[in-house]
Amino acid sequence: MFWSMESVFVLILLLSAAVSSFVAADDEAFIGVNIGTDLSDMPHPTQVVALLKAQQIWHVRLYDADRGMLVALANTGIQVMVSVPNEQLLGIGQSNSTAANWVSHNIVAHYPATNITAICVGSEVFTAVPNAASVLVNAMKFIQSALVASNLDRQIKVSTPLSSSIILDSFPPSQAFFNKTWNPVLIPMVNFLQSTGSHLMLNIYPYYDYMQSNGVIPLDYALLKPLAPNKEAVDANTLVHYSNVFDAMIDAAYFAMDFLNFTNVPVMVTESGWPSKGDSNEPDATLDNANTYNSNLIRHVLNKTGTPKHPGIAVSTYIYELYNEDLKPGPVSEKNWGLFNANGEPVYILHLTGSGLVLANDTTNQTYCTAKQGADPKMLQAALDWACGPGKVDCSAMLQGEPCYQPDNVIAHATYAFNSYYNQMGKAPGTCDFNGVAAITTTNPSHGTCVFPGSTGRMNGTTVNITAPSMNSTSSAPSVRDLYNLGSTSFLVLLRVLICSIVFL
User: Fold this and answer.
1) What pTM was estimated for this model as a whole?
2) Would the pLDDT of 135 be above 70?
3) Which residues belong to the active site?
4) What structural domains and CATH numbers belong to the chain?
5) CB-based burial of residue 147 (10 Å sphere; 0-12 exposed, 13-18 middle, 19+ buried)?
6) Which of 258, 341, 414, 479 has a CA-to-CA distance to 131 between 20 and 30 Å?
């Protein structure tokens, strides 16, 4: 198919209009995800981004400003919050030039290709590193000044995530107030947020509130399950009913700010979630409860219910977290807050019917990706080499003596690798192409003891996510480095395909 320059120009205009429409609509409340890195097998940044795209996750929070992640997130449209780690807080809070240098290296060097929207200065500073609290506001102001100097202060906001534990007497919400010990820091901090149009960032964990309540908080109330009116908690001062811990904590934050005479600073929840596994003394850290909480949370935020104090004004929330982190110290629950394992397999399938495309990790649809009959064997081998190499597919099942070794031919082995990749990408559009040598089918290619990923509605084996070598416009093409890793012959074959694709556009 030949495209005229006029056709290409019209297509660009249409795409630009679509992007503009998306950006305009994206000002509403959203669900984001935190990306922790305490994994023994942390996926490569490109694999992380491939998973985000496959799962329709368009808002992420990083706990640092890792260059690899910021580069991988460039030109994806994903909105990114970066962080000044707590260990860097003292240096930045005591030196304007140190703050300016941090912004130059970690923000200016990546923006606007990487869509950075906010900077978290430290995390839970009052409870995690109280010795740095005295310089927190200075650090925020120094970072803000550096953004102003770079003319980025309107695009990128500055705040700091707070632990909800600094709110005392949180129920009833109407009598909540911040721990007065921190007022000398909190008052100028909230004043800064108000003057810069930033959010009060709050980490809310109903799981811990429930665990520490000694039975006072019902499990359903913590899990955001629908309650009968007579089961809801009532604020005796306002007679307002609360059906869940999440809303009550948000309103407690609003009332605590009211107590300090700040009434127009919006709240953003930077962490919330539920662990899927725990020690013997954590019986409610289960797959079902984690699924229930996060599914209900996503629906609650996206349906714009708001809170009793601010009905109809939903609070954007970041789920804690993307991956289970096996290196986290502490109880078993600390390692099991993730939506996904390191290999990209969902820990559980979220119940999100009617909640849109975000976190669409339902892998129960029975489709498979297979090598096309009659495809060029050299092209098949090149794509197979890529999948088992840079693509990070676990191809061990195809080794001699393993279940999927037979039949020992390129089309059978390529089918196994292609299907593994297709599943690890969440069966996203464009991930079963491999330069035209693969196709989607509803026929299960499993045979004998060789069980293909996805054949049971779950992802089997150990696979990770990275962008597939596809000419499909919905999937990124491989980098030159990825193609080179295929070997010189395969590289030349795919290079010819690339050139032909460009010529015939």
Assistant:
1) 0.69
2) yes
3) 124, 271
4) 5-335 (3.20.20.80), 368-503 (no CATH)
5) buried
6) 258
